[in-house]
């Protein structure tokens, strides 16, 4: 059993944020190892101060709980049920779920659970890959099909992918047919894109951060590295910009066997920033 995420020491009932892990890499198509992601992110979370200077707050003042890991098995249908169950329980209790991957197939069942609670849910995905295949290598719930599955759950018009630079010709055609909006890297007007996104989609948002959205220079330890990526600071801007609308978050595809430690550290730091940014942007009376 991995150690707990740093500063996530509240009991479930007292917590506003609940961290859960998904140690699974069953459909990883290039190199395995993302199953070790949750443990590595938890380990590196202890490297950092609880005081988040960029936000002017202390994570020790924000009650968070580390629920532990979903028991991942080979059968993805069983895993999906387990994820829907825990994320649904977190959401129904009025708490904010924070998923640690594991591969990106974590996201569709998490979105499905929150969609039941928030019928108008929109989803923002940061990813190098469009993930719009209708399954891959025989797996309908492949990590290469995440955005396709999420689009089926909330509707492609309520999905925005950012950081895209890898897709097949077939995915390009299908995405155009379905009206999926996505933003490639190389963009210079990040805030303009984010403003358009926020205006185009009303209501609560789920944010999924595939770590390979970030350039391999900053995040080398991912399952499928792809050059020409986002900087960590651009990701931080996205987190800050969306923080007042978020109702759920995940950070996936950290692959410790391919990592020099920097990717898990960056993932842990971004998770910590997300908790702080959401708490600051969505203040609650008497708490935080
Ligand atoms: Mn992905
Ligand atoms: Mn990816």
What's this entry about, in short?
This protein has 288 residues and is of the alpha/beta class.
Q: How is the main sheet built? A: 8 strands, parallel
Cofactors and ligands: manganese (II) ion
CATH class category label: Alpha Beta
Termini separation comes to 29 Å
Helix content: 25-40%
**What's the number of helices?**
8
> Superfamily at the CATH H level?
Ureohydrolase domain
Order of helices and strands: EHEEEHEHEHEHEHEHEH
* Count of discrete domains: 1
Structural class: alpha/beta
Strand content: 15-25%
Taken from the alpha-carbon principal axes, the silhouette is globular
Instruction: Show unreliable segments.
Output: none
Over all CA atoms, what is the radius of gyration? 17 Å
Return the average pLDDT rounded to an integer.
Answer: 94
Second CATH tier, the architecture = 3-Layer(aba) Sandwich
């Amino acid at each position: 059993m991995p150690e707990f995420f740093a500063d996530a020491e509240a009991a479930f009932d007292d917590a506003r944020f609940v961290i859960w892990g998904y140690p699974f890499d069953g459909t990883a198509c290039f190199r395995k190892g993302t199953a070790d992601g949750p443990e590595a992110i938890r380990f590196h979370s202890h490297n950092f101060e609880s005081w988040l200077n960029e936000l002017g707050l202390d994570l020790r003042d924000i009650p968070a709980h580390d629920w532990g890991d979903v028991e991942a098995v080979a059968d993805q249908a069983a895993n999906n049920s387990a994820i829907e169950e825990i994320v649904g329980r977190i959401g129904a209790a009025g708490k904010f779920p924070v998923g640690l991957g594991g591969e990106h197939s974590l996201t569709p069942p998490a979105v499905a659970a929150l969609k039941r609670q928030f019928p108008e849910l929109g989803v923002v995905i940061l990813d190098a890959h469009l993930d719009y295949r209708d399954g891959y290598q025989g797996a309908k719930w492949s990590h290469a099909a995440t955005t396709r599955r999420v689009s089926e759950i909330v509707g492609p018009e309520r999905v925005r992918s950012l950081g895209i630079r890898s897709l097949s010709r077939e995915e390009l055609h299908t995405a155009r047919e379905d009206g999926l909006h996505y933003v490639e890297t190389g963009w210079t007007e990040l805030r303009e894109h984010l403003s358009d996104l926020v205006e185009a989609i009303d209501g609560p948002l789920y944010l999924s951060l595939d770590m390979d959205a970030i350039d391999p220079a900053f995040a080398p330890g991912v399952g499928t590295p792809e050059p020409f990526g986002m900087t960590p600071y651009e990701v931080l801007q996205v987190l800050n910009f969306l923080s007042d609308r978020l109702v759920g978050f995940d950070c996936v595809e950290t692959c410790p066997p391919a990592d020099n430690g920097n990717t898990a550290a960056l993932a842990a730091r971004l998770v910590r920033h997300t908790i702080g940014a959401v708490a600051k942007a969505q203040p609650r009376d008497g708490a935080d």
